[in-house]
């Protein structure tokens, strides 16, 4: 992988993690709906939630970053590398959202990371 591709994939991963954090924080800050789930009221809340729009913006930017990365490297290399976003989300959930992460989940995260490293090293 060239340095440019590494930077593009890293930026894509960061944007993915930011998007997920914005979605989670934005939804958690929505007021509870009385009377159960009402789709129209929910969509009204969503359209007025700045953090959800930040998440959508992160995903839009990520889309174009991903296209640029795809134009420079094989999908069979990039897609496994993008799986590191799962690891980033687990870490961000722990550090930023204060979520409890079990040992089993940490182990799974390490297995994903090791798998990505194996794919990237053997693809060179």
What does this molecule look like?
Its main location: membrane. It is a multi-pass membrane protein. One of its GO terms (molecular function) is transmembrane transporter activity. Keywords: Cell membrane, Membrane, Transmembrane, Transmembrane helix. It is found in: Cell membrane. By secondary structure, this protein is mainly alpha-helical. The chain has one domain (about 5-120). It contains six helices and no strands. The radius of gyration is 17 Å and the shape is globular. The N and C termini lie close together (about 5 Å).
Task: Provide keyphrases for this structure.
6 helices; 124 residues
> What structural class do the secondary elements suggest?
mainly alpha
- For the secondary structure, the number of strands is 0
Please tell me the total number of domains: 1
Rounded to an integer in angstroms, the radius of gyration calculated over CA atoms is: 17 Å
Low-confidence stretches: none
Distance between the termini: 7 Å
Strand content: under 5%
Shape: globular
Protein name: EamA family transporter
InterPro entries: EmrE-like, Small_drug/metabolite_transptr
Main location: membrane
GO molecular function, one term: transmembrane transporter activity
